[in-house]
Amino acid sequence: MKNFNGLLKDWEIEEILESFEIKSGVYKLVTERSSYILKKKKNKEIIVLEHRMLSYLKTKDIPASAPLKSINGVLWLEIHDELYAVYKFVEGESILYSYDKDNSDIIYEYGKVLGGLHKALKGYTPLDKVHEMDILKELFTSTIPAIEKNISIDRVEKFKSTINSIKDNMVSIIQKLDKQTIHRDAHPENMIFKDGEWKGFIDFDLCRKAPKVFDLSYILTGLLIGDFERESSRKQWLNLIPIMISGYEEYNGLSQNEKNSMWYIFLSIQLICIAYFFDINNNDLADQNLDAFYWIYNSKSMIQEKIE
């Protein structure tokens, strides 16, 4: 256990009784009355942006834990030349979907809370620039070339042919999508619930200006990969699509162009994941995501039917 007592005196946090690392660079700090999160950050700009955005969300009744200011109005502290931000711990837990239990009510909730978040973020006019995500530029200048470089020789031609078959329509549809601030890392582990009630999103480090259907599609493709090897789960996944969309549209409607784009966004996310896993030398997960890419590609009519 690291001793953080003294380091956080400017945050007027009482004596820390227990601390432990949740994951790399993220610590939970427990006091007699409260709990906090201490999280390593890349730079001060991210901390300031996150504080302003999450403070704004609170005014829209979207629960979010923003970085806390010290008594001197500072949003960060430095420990061994590394930046950290302090947050109030969000009590609750993530509720994960299970293909075996088929707790599809939580799928509707995922969509509903994401729709509410996006509705609130649409009105956010940041004082700080939210980095824009150019999906098409990322795909065709770095992601796809990286995949072609790493996949086995016997799979290159099939991959290139598949990309060529979707490229024109993908570009035409995605470039027409409106952009707004999104979470960018929206998955069930970042949605906190307690006693069946949504308590908030966490981990806004990757927020971007991008099409809102990216977040929606990111959750769905994550659910697909979660149990991709089982054919029964893949079939079940198709039925999750309209449930999540219905939940989302309870708070935030989707245009026809946004719905038309979702199959292409699914493929785009898979491509980004494949390149990422090749980059960190996890070829097994890269191959699994490539298999999922082809399955989505070959299931176009079934997927689009569920989206409609």
List the SSEs and their pairings.
Elements: E1 18-23, E2 26-30, E3 35-41, H1 44-59, E4 77-79, E5 82-88, H2 105-122, H3 135-150, H4 153-174, E6 180-182, E7 191-194, E8 197-201, E9 208-210, H5 213-226, H6 231-249, H7 256-279, H8 283-298, H9 300-307
Antiparallel strand pairs: 1-2, 2-3, 3-5, 4-5, 6-9, 7-8
Helix pairs in contact: 2-6, 3-7, 4-7, 5-6, 5-7, 6-9, 7-8, 7-9
Instruction: State the CATH topology of the largest domain.
Output: Aminoglycoside 3'-phosphotransferase, Chain: A, domain 2
Number of helices: 9
Q: What is the CATH C level class of the largest domain, in words?
A: Alpha Beta
The neighbouring-strand order within the major sheet is 1-2-3-5-4
CATH superfamily of the largest domain: Aminoglycoside phosphotransferase (APH), C-terminal lobe
Class from helix and strand fractions: alpha+beta
What is the rounded distance between the termini? 52 Å
Uncertain segments of ≥5 residues (pLDDT<50)? none
How would you sum up the global shape?
globular
Number of strands: 9
- Helical percent range? 40-55%
Number of domains: 2
Amount of beta strand: 5-15%
Architecture overview:
This protein is an alpha+beta fold and about 300 residues long. The chain folds into two domains: about 10-90, Phosphorylase Kinase, domain 1, CATH 3.30.200.20; about 105-305, Aminoglycoside phosphotransferase (APH), C-terminal lobe (Aminoglycoside 3'-phosphotransferase, Chain: A, domain 2, Alpha-Beta Complex). The protein has nine helices and nine strands. A five-stranded antiparallel sheet has the order 1-2-3-5-4. Helix 7 (about 255-280) packs across helix 9 (about 300-305). The chain is globular. The chain starts with 17 loop residues before the first strand and ends with a helix. The mean pLDDT is about 95.
